[in-house]
Amino acid sequence: MEALLVGAERAFAERGFHGASIGYICQCAGRTTGAFYSNYDSKLKLFLDVFRRHGDRTADYIGERIAHVDTGRDLAPQLARIFAGIFSGEHLDARWVFIHLEFRMMALRDHEAATALVDHENWFSGRIGTMLDALFERAGHRPALTGTELAALLGAMTRGIKLDRAIYAVGGVADPLSSDQMAKALEGLFRSVM
């Protein structure tokens, strides 16, 4: 099962959801199509497992950084640096921007994909939101937004900024927002809700 997930992640990253055939996924995994069908009844279900693994890694990365926030100091610049790093792509594989966008477009036309995407977004925002709520509680803050609401906002911002950055890169144009500028803007956002 692990080999299938690793192979599928590679295949989806290289060719996208629609471009990665079950045969190519199995080739990347070093498994037969029988191995695929003994574990999954659709490519969508395999993709969702891969998508969830990617979400787990991202949430773990954010959680490690939030755990090191010093609650005795101003939270806004510390949180701003964490999320500016994510916006800048210091952690997230840029190929996932395209995979995520492709999946979002598919979800506009496919009820099963839309339901799965909403469930994933709610799970992810809830997981990050729980971390933020715990941090705010430790620091004695009562923010205007819940951690989950703030996580949903940050997730939408991340997707938009990463998409724009990818387009600038393909076009050979310098990104108009530096990491420092993003950190300043995020610091203002965090201050406005805390």
TrEMBL record:
Presence of keyword Lipid metabolism: no
Ranges where the HTH tetR-type domain occurs: 1-58
Key word Transcription present: yes
Keyword terms, alphabetized: DNA-binding, Transcription, Transcription regulation
Gene3D superfamilies xrefs: Tetracycline Repressor, domain 2
Pfam families: TetR_N
SUPFAM superfamilies: Homeodomain-like
Organism encoding this protein: Streptomyces luomodiensis
Cross-referenced InterPro entries: Homeodomain-like_sf, HTH_TetR
Residue ranges of the annotated DNA-binding region, renumbered to this chain: 21-40
UniProt-recorded name of the protein: TetR/AcrR family transcriptional regulator
